[in-house]
């Protein structure tokens, strides 16, 4: 017997319908089911005691929030694509019951994906002074400008050593999994999602050095708002904190991996080929 928690997108009726139907299928076979409404509040939702699988019913945003709730508890996540891109999701709605059947039978693998631990350090205050910090992040953390038409100055240090001060619209730090998200839009590189690295990509840098660079997973990055204008921290698409001059954000390899259920039916490069309409010439 397994215990399954469905995380349901609140604005897509098809998600609730799919959860209800799959829940009936599971309970008819003696399994336990709970349902959770998707929320941007990562602290609400899954109770990890006894949950064997979290099923995300939505798009990549719902998948990110499900991972944020599940990763710290070691719960594997199965993504069902009800959105547009579906880079992170594993199955389409018509195949959900078959996917659950395979999970129950043990016919699956778990991909261990690197996460980021993202911590706010207020000027003159010890780390973790902000509620929710450190954040467990699957895709990316971004420190960006708040004033339209202006830039933000960010002093970057690598493993405690000064590197460079950026004048840019922002600076993005992502995992290999997140390389196909905002990083891709900012013309950063695409990495295989099972690699382990920190990818650092400037956003519209107003300087000659505007290239992405890649750090080893044991290295860490500190971004301090150098002023005179403030910045804002966005993690996995959610704005979480205003940053004043002197405040900093530290990004390092997360203590817990995201555990994504893989059924072997899709692979990363096939998804890229499909999403970008790539074809042999």
CATH superfamily descriptor of the largest domain: Probable inorganic polyphosphate/atp-NAD kinase, domain 2
Sheet with most strands: 6 strands, antiparallel
Structural class: alpha+beta
Using the alpha-carbon principal axes, give the shape: elongated
Order of helices and strands: EHEEHEHEEEEEEEHEEEEEEEH
Q: What count of structural domains? A: 2
Total count of helical runs of at least 4 residues: 5
CATH architecture of the largest domain: Sandwich
Q: In what order do the strands lie side by side in the largest sheet?
A: 7-6-17-14-9-10
What portion of the residues fall into strands of 2 or more residues? 35-45%
Report the CATH topology name of the largest domain.
Answer: Tumour Suppressor Smad4
Q: What is the terminal separation in angstroms? A: 50 Å
- Determine and state the CATH class of the largest domain: Mainly Beta
Unreliably modeled segments = none
Task: Kindly state the number of beta strands.
Answer: 18
Question: What does this molecule look like?
Answer:
The protein has 281 residues and is α+β, with helices and mostly antiparallel strands. The protein has two domains: 130 residues, 3-Layer(aba) Sandwich (Rossmann fold); 138 residues, Tumour Suppressor Smad4 (Sandwich), CATH 2.60.200. Helices cover 17% and strands 35% of the residues. It contains five helices and 18 strands. The chain has a six-stranded antiparallel sheet with strand order 7-6-17-14-9-10, with no helix packed on it.
């Amino acid at each position: 017997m397994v215990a399954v928690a469905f995380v349901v997108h609140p604005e897509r009726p098809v998600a609730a319908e799919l959860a209800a139907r799959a829940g009936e299928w599971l309970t008819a076979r003696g399994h336990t089911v709970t349902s959770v409404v998707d929320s941007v509040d990562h602290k609400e939702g899954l109770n990890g005691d006894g949950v064997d699988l979290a099923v995300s019913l939505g798009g990549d945003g719902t998948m990110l929030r499900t991972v944020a709730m599940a990763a710290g508890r070691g719960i594997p996540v199965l993504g069902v694509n009800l959105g547009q891109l579906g880079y992170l999701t594993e199955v389409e709605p018509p195949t959900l019951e078959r996917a659950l059947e395979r999970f129950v039978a043990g016919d699956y693998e778990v991909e261990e994906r690197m996460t980021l631990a993202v911590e706010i350090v207020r000027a003159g205050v010890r780390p973790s002074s902000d509620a929710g910090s450190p954040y467990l992040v699957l895709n990316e953390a971004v420190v960006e400008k708040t004033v339209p038409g202006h830039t933000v100055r960010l002093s970057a240090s690598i493993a405690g050593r000064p590197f460079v001060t950026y004048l840019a619209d922002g600076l993005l730090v992502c995992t290999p999994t997140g390389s196909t998200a905002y990083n891709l839009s900012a013309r950063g590189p695409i990495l295989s999602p099972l690699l382990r690295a920190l990818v650092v990509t400037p956003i519209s840098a107003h300087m000659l050095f505007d290239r992405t660079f890649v750090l080893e997973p044991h290295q860490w990055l500190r971004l301090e708002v150098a002023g005179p204008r403030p910045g804002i921290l966005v993690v996995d698409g959610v704005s979480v904190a205003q940053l004043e001059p002197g405040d900093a954000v530290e990004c390092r390899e997360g203590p817990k991996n995201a555990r994504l259920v893989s059924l072997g039916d899709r692979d990363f490069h096939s998804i890229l080929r499909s999403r970008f309409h790539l074809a042999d010439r």
